[in-house]
Amino acid sequence: MTLAEISSNLLYVAFVAYLIATFIFGGAVKGNKEGTFKSESRWGKVAITITLIGFAANLGYFFTRWGATGHAPLSNMFEFTTAFGMTLVGGFIILYFLYKTPVLGMIVLPVALLIIAFASMFPSEVSPLIPALQTNWLAIHVSTVVIAEGILAISAAAGLIYLLKVVDLTKKSKQRMGLEAIMYSLVLVLGFVIASSFFSLTGYEAEFTYVDKEAKDAAVTYTMPPIFGMNEYVALTDDAMTPLVEMPAIVHAGKLTTVTWSILFGTVLYWLIRLVFRKRIAAILKPFVKNVNIQLMDEIGYRAVIIGFPVFTLGALIFAMIWAQIAWSRFWGWDPKEVWALITWLFYAAYLHLRLGKGWQGEKSAWLAVLGFIIIMFNLVAVNLIIAGLHSYA
Amino acid sequence: MEKLQCQCGHVNPPGTKLCESCGRSLTEKEQNSKLVDMRYEGTARRSQTYNKSIIDKVWNFFSSVKVGVGIIVFLLVAAAIGTILPQKAFVPANTEATIKDYYADTYGVVGQIYHALGFHDLYSSFWFIILVGMLAISLIIASLDRFVPLYKSLKNQRVLRHPSFMGKQRIYAEGPGAEDTLKKAEEKLTELKYKVRTDKNGLLAEKGRFSRWGPYVNHIGLIIFLFGVMLRMMPGFYIDESLWIREGETRAIPEVPGYYLENKNFELENYSGEGGEEIFGEALDRVGTVAKNYQTDIVLYKKKEDALPGAVDGQEVVKEYPIRVNQPLKFDGYAIYQMDFRLDELKAMTFSFINKETEDSFGELTIDLIDPKKDYELDNGYSVKLIGYYPDFSGFENGEPQTATPLPNNPGFLVKLFTPETPEGETSFITIQNTVEPLGENDYKLAFQSVETRDVSGLTVRKDSTLPILGLGGLIFMIGVAQGMYFNHRRFWIQQKTDGTILLAGHTNKNWFGLKKDLNQVVEYASLPAYTDQQDEIDKQEKAEKEGEVLS
């Protein structure tokens, strides 16, 4: 086996371990009917051990890949997103040993699984570095950012648990809808993973030429049946499905097709779950948070932010500016990725001022933490894939 | 407003809530509340005291946290709007009119609206800059409003506080004590690294007061940073020039007096997928070419001190250096970056002087495309005169050849050919792969032989004297954040009344758990009375009342 193969096998091991640990954490929390925390701590120990094994394999993936490629594996969408999943689990492990909260694992691990699965949908072959990335600042800047985002995401997980516990799901309310919308969007990510895997396993591919927004000829390969056609498309593959609608040049119909298939798969899956359980996903999770100490969740959420915020400042702004000055001759250029890092920073600054200055604790704080995670995910997914800029290396 | 005199005799500035000296509640609100509000030690903040004049109103506006968060949210939303479509710096157009057309053509109506609203240049729009300015003002005023009274109050703390002050602290205890209780408490607190002061029958133990300055320190860091950014607009602090330099050329560096740069060689290297790069084979197959290195080998010259202006030989070599991406050339506070390149620009063209019929050659001449000579003498009385040179020939206008740019992209030559047979000369106009004879059929012509090319390197010249200021701002911000978030200010007040009764109160700005951990050790060692967390009591009571309501 080559080093690169060992690396990807270790990632599989980590994935499977997290998957198993998720169920055991769930069992540990659910099985605790009397609320005595005895069985919870016993099964929690088993689950955290498996998580630790998974995390060790995950670290193994990271460093063997580093060895194989000769650079920190943080240089493209697959590598960065996988690392994000890893730091999320790392953050959870630290907090588990501080606060002994299996319920946090039950939420964080599946999210980490989703993130790693999402990452695996992007090209994962070992790729060379362009000149701008050939420096130690790649490892310094990106690893600090990914650690900070992992920690900040923990605060969202704690917030989500808080909300699952306090939001009344028996009455119609904005909160209930918001909570279910979060669940639905997580299912959509799963929809993307399933759609991508399905079409890639069936080997679907269709090539088209089209005219791009600068009126130049270009080519595109669809990996999913084209629902939307590119501007003035011409099919090169004979048996390809004819696109239903042709899009104007500014819309990348290929990406729109992927999004649409993901939504289709995700929505079908969502309603299947609703049909099988006959209740909202939030309501399915509700019994798991029965014994949760909400003050502790509030505390964990806040702790995660006060650790994550300075680390984020250091990595996503200070180190980023130093590197930008060296590589691009200016420390700040209003590149979309830079702007969204600033937005994330401003958002958490607002969070801290509202919490410390205006007494926004508990539920308000929990909603903000979840919103922070949405901004981070937007910066990761949308800014890389939709908004073009210097950082779009997907 | 009038000054407030407390029962203890101390005169407090107007607006004070808790007497600066003894801690008695001075307002009705404070007197009626179960716990005192200790956020700013009950001091008189200007914003909470005056609201008459315009200055008061402006001050109060900017010192509000709500307004501060509002400005942050506005900035955040504005910043996000600026990423919906690319900013004008990122679009392939550079005049006002072409930029406008680009947005309209590429993004349709949405693009037109976006451009009309000025969002294409959002981050340098006056309103965005005003928002940032308001944030800076808010940082300054909100900090001063809180810091000044807080600093005074903490600096002049008295050891002995009035029992009513102590009784309204969150951590409180009252009970019998022994003779040595105070002494033992002092011992233990000192051991726990508290600074202990005593006065008559009481003590004040304090730890981590500096953490209270954290927010103000980090705000100072941000203000220094914003000040640094502002300073760039001052002349002399900031230079941003681009320099295109051909291989073999030596050029004066723009805005950097006395320095010259020679481009010895430009190199673009791509990944080959061979020789240790086999591992990248799959990725290279998928995406095609990936650049590995952009590099300009340069020599930096400096004009000698005693050299006459314009003297060619009055230069000394400062250094030879390969400028690469991520490895700018640095000297004397300036930095030169590898930013762009043009491959294979035409350098010189070689022609053969031939008889059109016999194709006999009478010699060759080479025309430099950047700085062409006028006359070219060949052997045996053959010569060429260059009458007109059009480096980027774009067609004729009124019979005159035109050039689009000064760059030799499509050179055109108007030449006169002289031979012993045709001493008055034959005129011909030569462009790549085409010869026009405007004044009638010629016997001779210049036949294209070869072309020399070279690369042009696009460099950026920078000087940014504000960087140390920005760095300092960032550093101070980080220190302030750590100071305020990871440390906390803990205090205990202990008094022993003449009958031996111990009064104990504790306060921290955050992390009550840590405070209690400290206190438990002191309570045990000095046998202090058991304390209660009055906030918990209040919470419990409220909860019980709420449940009572639900039940009834």
TrEMBL record, chain A:
Entry's Gene Ontology BP terms: cytochrome complex assembly
Keyword set includes Nucleus: no
Key words, A-Z: Cytochrome c-type biogenesis, Membrane, Transmembrane, Transmembrane helix
Top-level taxon in the UniProt lineage: Bacteria
Residue intervals of the Cytochrome c assembly protein domain: 91-193, 258-391
UniProt subcellular location: Membrane
Stretches that traverse the bilayer: 6-25, 46-68, 80-98, 103-122, 142-164, 184-204, 259-277, 304-326, 338-354, 366-390
Membrane topology: Multi-pass membrane protein
Pfam families: Cytochrom_C_asm
GO molecular function: heme binding
Keyword Flavoprotein assigned: no
Main location: membrane
GO CC term, one of those recorded: plasma membrane
Protein name, UniProt field: Cytochrome c biogenesis protein
InterPro entries registered for this protein in UniProt: Cyt_c_assembly, Cyt_c_biogenesis_CcsA, Cyt_c_biogenesis_CcsA/CcmC
UniProtKB/TrEMBL annotation, chain B:
GO cellular component, one term: membrane
Superkingdom field: Bacteria
GO terms (BP aspect): cytochrome complex assembly
Bilayer topology annotation: Multi-pass membrane protein
Major localization listed first in the record, in broad terms: membrane
Key words of the record: Cytochrome c-type biogenesis, Membrane, Transmembrane, Transmembrane helix
Transmembrane segments: 67-85, 126-148, 216-238, 467-487
InterPro entries: Cyt_c_bgen_Ccs1/CcsB/ResB, ResB-like_domain
Cellular location(s): Membrane
Residues of the ResB-like domain: 65-519
Name listed for the protein in its UniProt record: Protein resB
Organism: Planococcus donghaensis MPA1U2
